[in-house]
Sequence to fold (238 residues):
Amino acid sequence: MGKDRYRRQTLVKEFGQRGQKLLASKHAILIGGGGLGSNSANLLIRMGIGSIDIIDYDTIDKTNLHRTSVFSEKDIGKKKASILKEKLQSVNTDVKVKAINKKVTSKNIDSLISNADVIIDGTDNIPLRLLINERAIKHKIPWVYAGVFETVGMVMAILPKKTACFHCITPKIPVSKTQEIPVLGSLPATIAAIQCNETIKILMGKQPAGLIIYDVWNQCFDVLDIKRNPCCPICGKK
Ligand SMILES: [Zn+2]
Fold:
C-alpha cells in the first residue's frame, strides 16, 4: 500500500483504517464502462478497492466524451474496458485492475461474477440489469444498481434476500422510448459518486439507503424505502 495515499480518507471516523483494510480485501465486478461505469471505476480505484474487473465489449465513441472524466479524443474507437484499465491502473498500482472485453450474456455471467464481493452496475438497459439481478441473488452477491435519464439519476444497493431487488422496483424505473438515452453530461459523475458511496457502505456492513432518486435540474433528492415484494419471482418467498 502506497505510503500515506489514503491518509485523508482514513481520517474519516466512519471509515478509518478498518474501512481501508476492508476495502483493500474486496473484489468488485463492474459491468459497463461508459458514462456511469467509468466514473464509478475511477472513484473505487482511487479510494482503494482491492481489485476490479471492468467488463465492456463496446468501443469509445465521440458521443461518450461529454459524460465521462476518463476518456479523451484520442481514445475514440478503442475498447472501453482496455482504456479504463490502462488509464486507471496508472492512478493506483496497488489495485488489481482487469479489463474484460466481452459482452455479458446469460451464458457467461455466472463465471464472470463468481468471485465478486460486489457487482457495480454500469449498464444502460433493463434486460441486462434483470439478468444481473437474478444471478446476483442466486449467488448471494450484493450489487449496486445505478441509472441515469435526462436530469434524473437513481441508485439502489441490493442485498440478496435482505433488501428489495431490482425486479421489485422495475415498474418504478423510467424506460427511454428512444435508443439513445438523453443525459445531462454532469449527471453520470454525480450518480456514480452516490453509487460508490453505497458500495463502500455495504462492503463495510452498513445498511443500504434504499432507492435514491436525485433530480439535479429540479434539486430534488429523495430516498424511498422499498419493501421486498413477497411475491417477487426473484427475491420473494416462493
Ligand atoms: Zn424482488
